[in-house]
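Q: Convert this sequence to structure tokens.
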Amino acid sequence: MPRKISFIVNPISGQNDKSQVLSAIGRHLDFSLYQPEIRFTAAPGQAETMARESDAEVVVAVGGDGTVSEVARGLVGSDKALGIIPCGSGDGLALHLGISRQPHLAVDTLNRSFETSIDVARMNGKDFFCTAGFGLDARVSLDFAKSTTRGLPRYISLAWEEWLRRPLSNYRIHGADGKLLWQGDAVFVTVANANQWGNQARIAPMASLQDGLLDVVVVNPFSTLEIPDLATRLMTGRAPSSHHFLHFSGPSFRISRKGAGAVHYDGDPFRAHGPFYLSVQPRALKVLIPPAKAHKI
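A:
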């Protein structure tokens, strides 16, 4: 008996056109394994409700990081498994899990999938799955959310504009026992459940989705001349080798800063003052991943 599978499609994510994805589902999904339905979202937050109310055994997020996060929130703690067909601007969780951005290969992953469970991070009561951040990357996320142009080049352009404003904030980071781990000025602070922001920009290459821990990366002030070196390290998985990077690992953290500012979780930005309480729920979400990644997440 084929399993029921529900595809929740965000029609406006990424480059908007989902015809290739829909074609790939029709041509490459194994109908001996799955009985599919396709649903389209029409408003922010709707994907979470659809996922929570679905009676399918597998619920597939078709969209970018925001869509994936919404669908995943609707599945946390349930017996339903998350599948992903990534078609956004960053696709951080999908790339960590080894899921291809080519629609036919992502569909093939569903056919050959290995089912496992991953950790779910939480910030002030809100679940997230990839990263949360404070500082420069959060401000860029705010700018990017307002932009009518998508894609990595636009993101880089906005990051440069924010950098020219010389952004710094003063942070305090406390560990699970309440002990002060670090205090000082930083360009940004990232809390990682997965290893990257997206587009293989691996801000926390040491992060595992199955270790029951969060990884906090602090990036201290650096000069404009150092940007090429830091960018190279980021894209090659060597970011922590820079002396500007500090790293803390643990099951929970409290992060505070002076004044309100930009914050994001999984690229969804807002402004808030804090403090921010972060924790992890071990193995709280079922996911379908490529067999080759079965022991490497």
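The chain has a mean pLDDT of 93.
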